Amino acid sequence: MRRLTPLAAVLALFTTPPALAETLAITGGRLITAGPQGTLETGVIVIRDGKIVSVGRAAPPPGARVLDASGAVITPGLFATGSLLGAVEISALGDDLSVDNPQIGAAFDLREGLDPASTLIPVARTGGLTSAVVLPQPAGGGFAAHEHDGEVSGRRLTAGGGHEPRPNTLFAGQGAVVRLNGAPDMVVRGGVGISVAFGATGAQAGGGARGAQIAALRAVFADVRAFAANRSAWETGAYRELGLSKADLEALVPLVQGRTPLVARVHRAADIRAVLRLARDEKLRLILEGAEEGWMLAREIAAAGVPVILNPITNRPDTFEILGATLENAARLHAAGVTLAFTAPEGAAHRARETRYGAGTAVAWGLPWDAALAAVTINPARMFGVGDRTGSLEPGKDADLVIWSGDPFEPLSTPRAVYIRGQAQDLTTRQTQLRDRYKDLGGPLPPAYRHR
């Protein structure tokens, strides 16, 4: 076998790309699997053809290229959950995250507009992120729930000081799980959830009141069930008129049948309780997103078996919807038995790499370390139907992993190497390239700086 020192190994990652059939064995590191094997203080992980072959303490197989990770920490690649990665570059210049079309709401599939070449993706990888759950945004609600750490500002003001019109659809659209390797086939799974905004933003879509939105959703779900049971008659005009387009009706059938989750963006306790009741009555699979006041209903959420996506650093009462926001939200929900996934500020796009800092903050405020790791690895993978492929270090799964200089939740720790499907990822970004280009203008200048 060919053995490389830690420094030489990392340098070789980007100078000698491994052949597809090559077997790579990473040895000596502290393996935190986020799976059944727990933590191995000096483990060996073997990778072949983009998959994990084995995880344990056995010697590397003959002929394997060996990477010595002694002193390092190895974890599964992290998830950016509730992310905007690939769908937004600069928010002010437009995005592919929301629609305001009465014919297309639930049928909006944002994976069709994702850009694997987004400059935000390499930056996200520098924070150990290898996957993202990208979720659409509600029309009219903007990015408030993400960009202001949970703030929902109601109707956005236009440049003229007026209010934007109410959105024309109750549904924001369908999310997708993507890998962050910049490849054209970045989508791992589409249609992983249908997003709906509740509370102040959702009230706009319902006609201005929370109760109206709930009533409208109940009517829609009744129509969807009628469509599923009478599709042939409806298509021939022999059935009553239904309130949605065919595209939206078809998109909502898996939701009312419990095969696709409803991802409910909701914040205050009263609205969370209303959403739990709606999901129970309609027999829907439910994922809560935001839930800044979720700790107030922790036992109810746990009893319903509903997972929660939250930003663990939200604690400012920016609006009346999150007066109860606290840094202990994650710890209290976990203590009650709620499954958690973490997002980051500003929609986990421009600041996606801070996902691990939020997890570390949650640990500082009472969340067990292992629970924080699960919230950025295996939990989101399972929530969105890819837990059999990624999210933990287990044989048969994609080789998505990070070799860290230390505890990944410590701000001074950095990724030494990031692998996605067994391929080492370049950790340079546009920002680091610009830094390197212009940090020393005493040497040969770029063409634009030269005097003619």
Can you walk through the features of this model?
This protein is of the alpha/beta class and 452 residues long. Strands 9-10-11-12-13-14-15-16 form an eight-stranded mixed sheet. It has 15 helices and 19 strands. β14, α9 and β15 (308-310) form a beta-alpha-beta unit.
The gist of it:
The protein has about 450 residues and is of the alpha/beta class. It has helices at about 5-10, 120-125, 145, 200-205, 210-230, 230-235, 245-255, 270-280, 300-305, 330-335, 345-350, 355-365, 370-375, 380-385, 430-440; strands spanning about 1-5, 25, 30, 40, 45-50, 50-55, 65-70, 75, 80-85, 130-135, 175-180, 185-195, 260-265, 285-290, 310, 340, 400-405, 415-420, 425.
Write the layout of secondary structure elements.
Blueprint: E1 2-4, H1 6-12, E2 23-27, E3 30-32, E4 39-40, E5 44-48, E6 51-56, E7 65-68, E8 73-76, E9 78-83, H2 120-125, E10 129-134, H3 144-147, E11 173-179, E12 187-197, H4 199-205, H5 210-229, H6 231-235, H7 246-256, E13 262-266, H8 269-282, E14 286-290, H9 298-303, E15 308-310, H10 329-336, E16 340-342, H11 345-349, H12 355-364, H13 369-375, H14 378-383, E17 401-404, E18 415-420, E19 423-424, H15 430-438
Parallel strand pairs: 1-7, 2-7, 3-8, 9-10, 12-13, 13-14, 14-15, 15-16
Antiparallel strand pairs: 2-5, 3-4, 5-6, 8-17, 10-11, 11-12, 17-18, 18-19
Helix pairs in contact: 4-5, 5-7, 5-8, 12-13
